[in-house]
Amino acid sequence: MHDHAHAHGGIRSAGNRRLLTVSLSLTATVMVVQIVGALLSGSLALLADAAHMFTDSSALVVALIASAVAARPADDRRTFGYQRAEVFGALINAIILIVLMVVVAVQGVNRLIDPGEVEVAGPLMLAVAVVGMLANAFSMWLLSSAQKTSINVHGAYLEVMGDLIGSVMVIAAAVVIVTTGWMPADAIASLLIAAMILPRAISLLREVFSVLAESAPKGTAVSEIRSHLEGYRGVVGVHDVHVWQLTRGAPVFTAHVAVDPAVLAEGRSADLLQELQGCLAEHFDVEHSTFQLEPADHTDCEAAHA
Fold this sequence. Notes:
It contains ten helices and three strands. By secondary structure, it is mainly alpha-helical.
């Protein structure tokens, strides 16, 4: 017997939406502070981090809208409800990240090639970056638990984590400028922030496409599930197995189960079905499973016509 903690609320829970709202408020506030600080200090790295914060604010707005849509109940046309809205929201977030990366990279290279007479106010740059770091650390703490069960909260969490790292980079550049007066540190920090965005965007896109392609959830071993089910008394074989997820934390499982004809003859099919569904929920955290029970000889006939 395995003891699993189930948390399938995802972004659809009111608690997660409140967390996103608080994180959005913090992110938007710090973004404004960073924009003002960047304009006053002349720091490209600080402006890049502010642009990143702007992207995160937009991403959080998308996540909140998606959460409201995803919370709508299922109907006769959308029998699984609107949970896929989370996935489309995450897709938008990933695209925004990629566009931001290109813009920041171009500006950083231009600053290195033609630095001009740019003077960066290191102390002000440092103070604003520290404020951003503290705010991002708090937002990450707020979202750390909920991001495990929602692809959109996970996307927001990744972006806040990127902001935290970006703030640390800006702090490092500001320290270099304050202590040595070497201004290119600012442009280098902005390029590092841009380089940091790419793997995050790719990671989020990979997960989105995995869900849309109805691939098995990461870490799911279909062969292990099949072997586990075949260990139940009366089960002869398991075939036509399909595992996918509507969104992060919402896996779906279907399979045809060939059983000993005696199971059907003795009226034990309902008990076996309950055992199989309990197995999926208990051992593999799959709450939504559908099984078609059929006599073993039916499977043989079906295989002959395949």
